[in-house]
Amino acid sequence: MTENVQQFSVAALQAGDRNEFARMVDAFTPKLYRLAIKMLGNEQDAEDIVQNTFLKAFQHLRGFESRSSLSTWLYRIAANEALMLLRRKRPETTFSDALPEDEGQSAEYEPAEFSDWCCLPEEEFVSSEARLALDQGIQTLSENLRIVFLLRDIEGLSIQETGEALGLTETTVKTRLLRARLRLREQLSQFYSERMHRNVETK
């Protein structure tokens, strides 16, 4: 993952340097908020997650051993906070490494519908409509698929970092990521099919 972790002095943070901590908060707030809002879909909940993440980071910085990057550590706290909030709202939901849908299933999930989007102009993929369709598609994913997709494909963590942040094996991360990508492709198939037809008709 591309990040500017070297900008921050872990030693200064652990020594309680509030200026350094404020710099870290400024740098990571947009990323953590983006993760939380896409995970929870609620602005107030997302703001609470970000606030709780930095509060817990401040409380536990002295125990940070740099076995993972600073950003992975913060994402781990934020992910845990988000998943705990979801658990409180839906106690029947679990997020362990051995979820039922991971057991006895291969990564070869086959969506019901595929469309070939190769002929669409690039602007179709970055339009506000496309971003909205993607956000809506992400919300249809189960929580365990959604968090893996967000960390890996939206936030840019590596497979290893995603596993570290969620306490999952790399194999589980890869399986869930593939499943999430294929399900999103299925969700977005109709959206891009309509735009492909529209582009053909306007030529």
How would you describe the overall organization of this protein?
The chain has 203 residues and is mainly alpha-helical. The chain folds into two domains: 5-89, Rna Polymerase Sigma Factor, Chain: A, CATH 1.10.1740; 100-202, Arc Repressor Mutant, subunit A (Orthogonal Bundle), CATH 1.10.10.10. The chain is built from nine helices and no strands. The radius of gyration is 19 Å and the shape is elongated. Residues 1-6 and 94-126 have low confidence and may be disordered.
Task: Give the SSE map.
Layout: H1 10-14, H2 18-40, H3 43-60, H4 70-89, H5 123-126, H6 128-140, H7 143-154, H8 159-166, H9 170-202
Summarize the helix and strand pattern as letters. HHHHHHHHH
CATH topology of the largest domain: Arc Repressor Mutant, subunit A
- Average of pLDDT: 79
Summarize the biggest pleated sheet.
none
What integer value in Å does the Rg equal? 19 Å
CATH superfamily of the largest domain: Winged helix-like DNA-binding domain superfamily/Winged helix DNA-binding domain
Distance between the termini: 40 Å
The CATH C-level class name of the largest domain? Mainly Alpha
Number of E-state strands = 0
> What is the global morphology?
elongated
Low-confidence stretches: 1-6, 94-126
Tell me the CATH architecture of the largest domain.
Answer: Orthogonal Bundle
Number of domains: 2
What's the helix count? 9
Strand content: under 5%
Helix share bin: 55-70%
Helix-and-strand structural type: mainly alpha
